[in-house]
Amino acid sequence: MYVPLHVQSDYSLLESCNRIEELVPFMHDMGIKAIALTDRNNMGGTVSFYRKCKEYGIKPILGVELDVEGFNGTGFPLVLLAKNANGYRNLTFLTSMKKPIAKETLFTYAKDVIALSGGYNGELATLVRLGKFKEAVDLAQLMREALGEGHWYVQLELSTETHKQVARKMFELLPKSEFVASQKITYLRSEEQQIVRTLKALKDGKTLEETKILELSFLNYNEDPREFKSVPEALKNTERIADSIDYVFSNELKLPDLTHEYSLSELVYQGAQKRYGSVNAKLKERIEYELSIIKKLGFENYFLIVYDIVRFAREKSIPVGPGRGSAAGSVVAYCLGITDVDPLEFGLIFERFLNEHRGGRPDIDIDFCFERRSEIFEYVASRFGHERVAHIGAYGTFGVRSSIREVGRVLNVPEQIINGLLKRLNPKEPSLNDFLHQRLSPIELEIIDLASKLEGLKRHHTTHAAGIIIAPKAITEYASLEPTSEAIATTQMTMDDLEEMGLLKMDFLALKTLTILKDIEAKIRRWNPYFNLADIPKADPETFKLLQQGRTFGVFQLESTMFQELLKEFKPDKYGDLIAILALGRPGPMSHRREYVLRKSGKKPVDYLHPKLEPILEETFGFMIYQEQVIQIAHQIGGLSLSEADIMRVAMGKKDARLIENLKIKFIKGAVKNGLTSKQAEELFAEMERFAGYAFNKSHSACYALISWQMAYLKANFPYEFYVSLLNFKSDLEEIHACLEDCMNEGIEILPPDVVYSQSFYAREGMAIRVGLGKLKFMNKGIADEIIKQRTFRSFVDLADFLNRIRLNENIRHSLELSGSFRTLAPEREFPLDERNTIGTQLSTYNAKVWDPLLEELKSVFPSIVAGRIEEFLIDQGIPKGVVKGNGRKVRFQLTKSAKDFRRFFRVNEVIALLGRETNKDNVLFVEWALPLKSVLIISPLIKELGRLQKYLHQIRGESPVVFKFNSGELQLLPPKFWVKEGMINATELDPLVDQFSWIRDSLKGID
Question: Which CATH architecture group holds 730-832?
Fold first, then answer.
């Protein structure tokens, strides 16, 4: 029997196109009884391979193709196979080392390892090809002696004439008893050769035409053994090696033991005293029940480990989230301080988290402050040992776009053809199926065909964003690590495979909102030292008012337009409503949104199928929106145990017909026994089945509702601290613009940067918020801090004094000038500007995105208009967009309603914009913006004005009209020859926002 001993999968990055889920079934169909997976310097596919082989009744042989240092100091492939558990551990250890590995190191960890010579590219075959026959014989002798009899074999490859030439020479030099039939299998079918060539071309940075490979598709020597007629031992040795392998994976939970340090029961009861004040009979019963399940399932150490990590974070004042997922349903977790939501108060169910009959392991994910999460990783590594802790590996794969682009590159296709194909993809959900009904050229067809075969293959190894593994022994006892110099290494295996091995996986997620909450709390404590987030009341009129009005920009989970509209309709007036809203904002429950609102407002009665449902569904007005409600109904009405009820919920969600039917029979009997008719029980079960697929986890909703409430409370009651923190922690420019707009809509003034008043970041200044110097283009924190340090030491006298004491490069100085940061030191100074590169902007209540539909429409009906926004401006993280080119001259004026003519305030070809949030004072209209219609776009935040604007445009022939936009929403358009008498201008009543008008360079539109 022939056994393939040198098979590779796509875990051999950019070297093989074999996917494990396809490789094993193929071998099964070929009648293969055993396979060795030997990926290049990677054992990440081991568990997936093992599992799939067991599924198909094939014996899995675990191995690796390792780079070992050879005669010329470079690495040569050597195939290593694990005979047993000890051999597997040696392989994972060796694979985790920096390559190439020295032979001495290999020999040290070679016990229970079988080595194959590495094939055509191995050191032995290379020496033979180079004519170094004595060195080849010496190498074979060295390996034979170091590894021991039966642990060293010479790979005999006869698939091509090139391979045979090397083999014939080996026959002369080496004993035939050491030969083993071999073929390096990187693809299975002949038509897949082009895929492997493409991968190699990508790896080598060459074109497909320049790339050749020696390997052939799979050759089944069981069907045609003639190639090895002269050396039948070679085929027999493959079977002999497979028979010597004896290894079984264990998925037993592998946890560090902390029971010698902590008593779980004692910690829980201590926590219960702190949380509840006293432990009554009901609480004691719940605690004892949960502890019994935890201990029965062997998860005591798991809870102790999570407790220890959270304890450390709280002792170090690292913000920790209130919980996430179903873990909040555990009273034990609440008493240990792992979660901050009382499951008894909110009716959360332990079985939703941990069910002795459902199987599976507890999964407690923890949110930490994003700035200090690294301290958690460092603590865990030092607490349990660096060798026992690792980040979880992941793999980037070829996507639709990258497949097309990379195939185009190796085929040497012009860039415009590739870009043309990419533009034809669905932008939201790109798929190669998008091309099924499109007319394609032959070269485009070739690209799409090859890209479809590349899509989904592993491309590179990366690190899971939050996952970490903690083991009772060194990680290399269980899994290989990616060689690294980092303090914490990364596994080559992925998350699911590591968990299947029984290793403890934890997710430490970085949640920026926790950092913002802590920062707001610190700001408030500067003037109110007793303020504490934990003491925020869950019934606050101002917070409910904010929520009911949908003013939730910056509020965790509630920022989207959908949630803002839902809040306005829902009008939450108690804390529990917020939990329900977070659950309702999901695709399934959203279908009942209108009905839910009508019931809550009392406009429609709440109907229950049976009165016994009322206690369970009352809080959600008769709808099942929580998974916990499905469990409660199955338990309280259907008579199922809580464990069975949870299993039924899972079965309904997965549409497991067999399991559902078995539980349905029991449910119907129990419901009838509890007073329902058979028809009612059938209807209720059908309704549960319909809701269970999209009902939301109440435990998770309750946890995140707490964060949402805290943010809403702070915005409603401490708006300055709220916005300052929000602005300083936001990094996306569009989000900054939106935040500033929301800030102004809440009535908070934004002050421009100033070297005399600004801090490095946004800061409160009286009843306003000042833009920080560190937010200016080209400005770095060092210069900003130096400005603050110098003025603290001694105030700046004037601009000359500033420039003498602060050394600025040209870019930073220009930045300060253009942003008006010198306005206090030099209020009358005119700064020289290049007129070709100036942009005028003033604070606007509108984000520029709302103008885009108007611009597109204008472009289609009036082609001479430049339909596009002139981008960005000087303030890096600061002022909203909305700009047009200008000549740098400030314009101050206002017009009365009685004015029928307008003063011409601009020169020929001059372009000026005023963008502001003017108010109507004493029957006066303030100009929001004015500009001549040359090659300049027109902007308006109100789409309904488009018709009127188009009408005006078509009325003008041969002129360059001027458009005025007033705060009343009215548009006026006049030819440029019109102007009014001087007496018509009231120059004394100016909008104060005009003073914030800034001029800045067009070249600064690209903002870092």
Answer: Orthogonal Bundle (1.10)
